[in-house]
Amino acid sequence: MSQSLKQPNRVREGGRIDRAQTLSFTFNGKQYQGHAGDTLASALLANGVNIVNRSFKYSRPRGIVAAGAEEPNALVQLGSTEAAQVPNVRATQQALFDGLVARSTNGWPNVQRDVMSLFGKLGGQFMPPGFYYKTFMAPASMWMTYEKVIRKGAGLGRSPMERDPDHYDHLNQHCDLLVVGAGPAGLSAALTAARSGARVILCDEQEEMGGSLLDSREQLDGQPAHHWVEGVVSELAQMANVTLLPRTTANGYHDHHFVTLHERRTEHLGETAPLTDGQRPSRSRMHRVRAGQVLLATGAHERPLVYGNNDVPGNMTAGAVSTYIRRYGVVPGNKLVLSTTNDYAYRAALDWLDAGREVVAIVDARKAPEGDLVEQARVRGVRIIEGAAVLEAKGSDRVTGARVATIDAETFKVTGSSDTLSCDTIASSGGYSPAIHLASHTGARPTWNDEILGFVPSLVKGVHAAGSVRGFHQLADGLANGCSAAAEALSALGFAATPVELPQVNTYRQGAACALYQVPHEKPTLRGPKQFVDMQNDVTAAAIELATREGFESIEHVKRYTAMGFGTDQGKLGNINGMAIAARCLGKTIPEVGTTVFRPNYTPVTFGAIVGRHCRDLFDPERYTAMHQWHVEQGAEFEDVGQWKRPWYFPRTVNGKTESMHDAVARECLAVRQGVGILDASTLGKIDIQGPDAREFLGRVYTNKWAKLAPGRVRYGLMCKDDGMLMDDGTTSCLGENHFLMTTTTGGAAGVMEWLELWHQTEWPDLQVYFNSVTDHWATITVTGPEARKLLAEITDIDLDRETFKFMDWREGTVADVPARVFRISFTGELSFEINVQANYALHVWKTLFAHGEKYDLTPYGTETMHVLRAEKGLIIAGQETDGSVTPEDLGMQWAVGYDKPFPWIGKRALTRSDTRRVDRKQMVGLMPKDPSVVLEEGAQIVFDPDHAIPMPMVGHVTSSYYSPILESGFALAVIKGGHQRMGEIVYLPMVDGKTHAAEIVSPVFYDPKGERQHV
What we know:
Layout: H1 3-6, E1 18-27, E2 30-36, H2 40-46, E3 53-54, E4 61-62, E5 75-78, E6 86-90, E7 100-104, H3 116-123, H4 131-135, H5 143-154, E8 169-180, H6 184-195, E9 200-203, E10 219-220, E11 223-224, H7 225-237, E12 242-245, E13 248-254, E14 258-264, E15 284-296, E16 300-302, E17 315-317, H8 318-328, E18 335-340, H9 346-354, E19 358-364, H10 372-379, E20 384-386, E21 388-394, E22 401-408, E23 413-414, E24 419-422, E25 425-429, E26 432-434, H11 437-441, E27 447-449, E28 454-456, E29 463-465, H12 475-493, E30 532-534, E31 539-540, H13 541-549, H14 555-562, H15 575-586, H16 590-593, H17 607-611, H18 628-633, E32 637-641, E33 644-649, E34 653-654, E35 657-658, H19 661-674, E36 677-680, E37 685-690, H20 694-701, E38 714-720, E39 726-736, E40 739-744, H21 749-762, E41 770-773, E42 778-784, H22 788-793, E43 810-815, E44 818-823, E45 832-838, H23 842-853, E46 859-860, H24 863-872, E47 922-929, E48 941-942, E49 956-964, E50 969-977, E51 986-990, E52 996-1002
Parallel strand pairs: 1-7, 8-9, 8-15, 9-12, 15-29, 17-25, 18-19, 18-25, 19-20, 36-46
Antiparallel strand pairs: 1-2, 3-4, 5-6, 5-7, 10-11, 13-14, 14-15, 16-26, 21-22, 22-23, 22-24, 27-28, 30-31, 32-33, 34-35, 36-42, 37-40, 37-41, 38-39, 39-40, 42-45, 43-44, 44-45, 47-50, 47-52, 48-49, 49-50, 51-52
């Protein structure tokens, strides 16, 4: 069988494909062939596949419309196995590989004969915008059933049910200039910057760099355009200061020139990454780029015209027709009708003629079009119908004709009788919309440009734009603009721009474009054939008109009511047309209506690429302290605290019998209270804070004062959210005049770090202060108990005398011959020393302490004992005594709040609200059960009257509850309404088993209320 019969729409020569390499692929269960260099879309068109999918809402047959990221219809499901399934891949962006298996994401039992299409035909008129909200509201109990049916009917791919065999990764990068887009403007910009010595990253979403030059009819220096592209790319590839990233989409532009780039590393090679020496490279990579300056050369998307039945397979954009012919050697039909408003679309007709096919007519909306391309068409005998447009496409599964008539674009009327032209392909062009998406991510609102009939980006500091994204559509203008934009960026970076000699390009004479978006019809929009604006979401011109009639005037409201631009294409083809239709219906101009807000991601990104290596075992990694193996060897039981494995308790085994948790904790508690205990506290969050404004910053994030804390001293602090509720607590030590070490709770470390950075970067960027997490750098060993000083004195050169080393002091010296910081901080109420050493030496220090501590019966204890000891002293744990609704004053910690500080620290204003000043707020108190043997349940609800009829008014709950061997009784901390004024009262705790426990409200400090033991 000849090649032409295998691929009936493939021309015999031309294109950038490798005809010597034939690739087999399967689509919807049928096998086809293509060539290396094809996309799945070009291969399907080459094989004459018309219907690639069914539409989202009406299940109408859909064909390929475009050739790039703007394609709305050709979404396919990839994968031959369950594990390899990837949903909603654009056929226009998926490179063809041998063995590729794809199928349509919608259509049952198949895409050719879809049962749901009957509902679309018969019930389409009953499904206007918003019909879901109007139709399925009652009865409310049925919504879950409705939703299942709606979702099943809507389709759009499915996720795999088996484990992904591939892995993904992230790469952090820095550069002087990031150039997004490797078309003519991007290449000239990158070449200018690279020759000037700047570090350049150049990325482009296509399989190869060159952009529009890969299918251009124009010549550069008398040679085909791709020759210049190959020369520039080759030069850039050999430069050490340049990184080239093809198949890489800039998906998000974030603050401070932080741009995320999604590189598809092996998706063009197979459905899984190929094995090389027994290993697989990553499937895709997320580059997280911090650039000094960013240059956007993102080009423009051609807008199709909106006319009747413009979604029937065979309707395409004019530029896509040229791309398939010139780049892939595919003519997507035999007889072409071109409907256009501009000169540049004439290229599609000329390319069609060059491929040996028939151009039935060019239908130009302008009265008297003129320009070099227009003249070329006339010379070649093409029929040009002036002042007219395609009103309606004929056909169902494939275009069979185009109904054409003269129109008046300004008055939106059909002015002449119609004529039906026989054809199988309709190409349309309503102009070009600059790809402003990334620029919009910065928060800058685009501005309308009447000369190009499109929005152009507004640029924030450090962002530059070049080429078609700025409206420079002529090749010579785009090349020059790329160089000048690069020179501006280089100047801002401090580089002198090296001039680049640009190639000679012929300039085409062009006529002015016509402002036409929706083509008028003899019938009103609401009664005529469907005119699709957003093909992915089945949004029609009638839907937009209806939305404006129902009172939606803001384009953002129109978008949400109709779902225009909500699809995976983000309205790349349809948004401007939709805005123009809304503007006409509202009697406004397009700039008055404005544009919708584009947000990341520019195109869909797989969860794998977003997650990178942070999955499976690394999704929530277990963290171990430097002494972890020692704990394991001692038989410790562990609990998870944040990501850390912390020793819970250390059960001993005597005569073959292992202690229970209750017995082990009781032993550990008494060892600390009566002798000396040791705790691995390395998991506490540690944040190093430095800078001239460090004190000022601390005063703003903590509730208490920090201006006068001297070096060598430590202070306890409370940190509130902006609603005045406690979020974390800990100590902060002054290491130097502008240097502090903050400790946080183990589970709250990451959140506090993020909180500090958030306020510094967004609210107080003027403060010179810097934060570094040093949790993993320093191991913390707590030695606590009456014998702690004696033990530590044996292995340190620090003077531990109580008069020279007071409570809440810290000193620097050596412990076990290791440089250390030692802090007199107590979380047990006993004499305590917290030893911080570099983590690599911690196990040595730990073992040395045990060697010297044998005579003192040094006892390791875990987190459960730590909780008992701290609760006996009434010390809180954020997240246990607090739940996001507790203020410092609720905890009885007014002493840690500085209302007279000069700057309003975070939460101060909220604490003046009437709600936070109520006397009946839940306040922290202690509870002593009337029966000492009872240990109250944590979370147990508290009532004042146990005989009250159910439902009983609940007045509080238990936050912490333990048995204390030193008190020989159960005890608890709780929050109770007005608890501070209820000391000595009896409250009751009804249990689910019918029992009711009585407890007395007491001070939360159960042991050593004067704090004498920690000051010895």
